[in-house]
Design brief:
Ribonucleotide Reductase Protein R1, domain 1; mainly alpha; 444 residues; two-stranded antiparallel ribbon; 7% strand; 8 strands; 16 helices; elongated; single chain; 3 domains; Fumarase C, Chain A, domain 2; Fumarase C, Chain B, domain 1
Length: 444
């Protein structure tokens, strides 16, 4: 049977599991917000721990926090970052806005662990208090957007690295297939000649374009509003706190963060997040389009386009023997749909600020970190299990090309549009190739 301790807050007494490192605020949040099984991702927890650690170090340097308290908070925050308390940081993503519950969950865990380090008991806060010490010079309103920025910057390193590998795979296929001439199509109809290699090279360039936009959005995330506290004015902070904590965060993370030009703006404007989310959405749109082409080129094996062959990854049917489906592109397309949907949530949330605060930040954080994670994992899956193993069906490609009339456009400068139209109609009527019709009429 679980044993409890009693803590007091502004609303009265609260029962808290006796051995828990979290406290009264988290207990109330757990009771209030039982909505889903979705909680903060590991990367956000780590980033939040960095903010708490950097704040303690900054406040100590500025003479605002005693050496004994700072040392204990430092140790507790490092343990928080290492994941020691992950099982106690489990609040629902759907909660009171601005992320106050997340902020206080971390404050309480770190405070109770710091008190334990100093010989105190959980819930008594004899040496270190969650609000007075761990949350010193901070507010949920600047902590949560800052931790979200840091989490996305850290996660983006993995995503951009995977995108670069994905581009290399597409370019490799472009080189491999550079001499394979095929029918180019517009409106799903035969158009003009192209090579299979040119198609894959063009896919690579489209992803490159998306990557450049993403990198620009990442750069904007590195401007932090931490130190603005409640509404961005910096109430209850040392005049040098902003510069000091941002320097600490840069050192801890290895990223070059800077001070936002206006920290009031960073509490109510979520434009930097909607911009980043839009870059993920645009990337998802490009990937989805490419996956559609790959599925069509793979269609068959006997009664479809059949220009490429995808690696075999799993049986395609529970009822049709030996059927194979484009399973990897299908999965990647689902991921793209989810990312596009997540962007819609971010757009909705970014409009939600009133006056000096946007209180949708937990929703923004969850959807954006989720989008980054599934994109990274999906790109790796698609590269390793699909793109790298694609084979060209050269005989089928040549047969389709020879039967097509896609070379007609190249004759227009010599023979004129209407004359070539007549020749194409004759070829279609007779079932002959264009060259055969021209041979018959001594046009070549």
């Amino acid at each position: 049977m679980t044993k409890y301790r009693t803590e007091k807050d502004a609303l009265g007494e609260v029962s808290v599991p006796k051995d828990a490192y979290f406290g009264s605020f988290t207990s109330r949040a757990l009771d209030n917000f039982q909505i889903s099984d979705m909680s903060a991702p590991e990367e956000f927890c780590t980033a939040l721990g960095y903010v708490k650690l950097a704040a303690a170090r900054a406040n100590k340097k500025l003479g605002e926090l005693g050496a004994k308290e700072a040392k204990a908070i430092d140790k507790a925050a490092l343990e928080f970052i290492d994941g020691k308390f992950d099982s106690e940081f489990m609040l629902d993503v759907f909660q009171a806005g601005a992320g106050t519950s997340y902020n206080m969950n971390a404050n309480e865990i770190i405070a109770n662990r710091a008190n334990e380090i100093l010989g105190g008991k959980k819930g008594e806060y004899e040496y270190v208090h969650p609000n007075n010490h761990v949350n010193m010079a901070q507010s949920s309103n600047d902590v949560i957007p800052t931790a979200t920025r840091i989490a996305l910057v850290m996660m983006s390193k993995w995503l951009t690295a995977e995108l670069e590998d994905f581009i290399k795979s597409l370019e490799a296929k472009g080189r491999e297939f550079k001499s394979i001439q095929k029918v180019g199509r517009t409106h799903l109809q035969d158009a003009v000649p192209i090579t299979l290699g040119q198609e894959f090279t063009a896919y690579a360039q489209a992803i490159k374009n998306s990557l450049e936009s993403l990198k620009e959005a990442i750069s904007a995330l590195k401007q932090l509003g931490i130190g603005g506290t409640a509404i961005g004015t910096g109430v209850n902070t040392h005049p040098k706190f902003k510069d000091t904590i941002i320097a600490e965060l840069s050192e801890l993370t290895g990223e070059k963060f800077s001070k936002a030009p206006n920290s009031i703006t960073t509490t109510h404007s979520m434009q930097v997040f909607s911009r980043y989310s839009a870059s993920l959405r645009n990337l998802a749109i490009e990937i989805h389009r490419i996956m559609g082409d790959i599925r069509l080129m793979n269609a068959g094996p006997r009664a479809g386009v059949r220009e490429i062959k995808l690696p075999k990854v799993q049986p395609g049917s529970s009822i049709m023997p030996a059927k194979l489906n484009p399973s990897i592109p299908e999965c990647m397309s689902m991921i793209c749909g989810q990312v596009i949907g997540a962007d819609s949530v971010v757009v909705f949330a970014a409009q939600g600020g009133q006056f000096e605060l946007n209180w949708y930040t937990p929703l923004i954080m969850f959807n954006m970190t989720m989008a980054v994670r599934i994109l990274e994992n999906g790109l790796r899956m698609t590269r390793e299990k699909c793109i790298d193993g694609i084979e060209a069906c050269e005989a089928e490609i040549k047969g389709s090309f020879d039967r097509s009339l896609c070379t007609a456009t190249e004759l227009v400068p010599k023979l004129g549009y209407h004359e070539v139209t007549r020749l194409v109609k004759e070829a279609m009527k007779s079932g002959k190739g264009l060259r055969e019709v021209m041979d018959d009429e001594d046009r070549v």
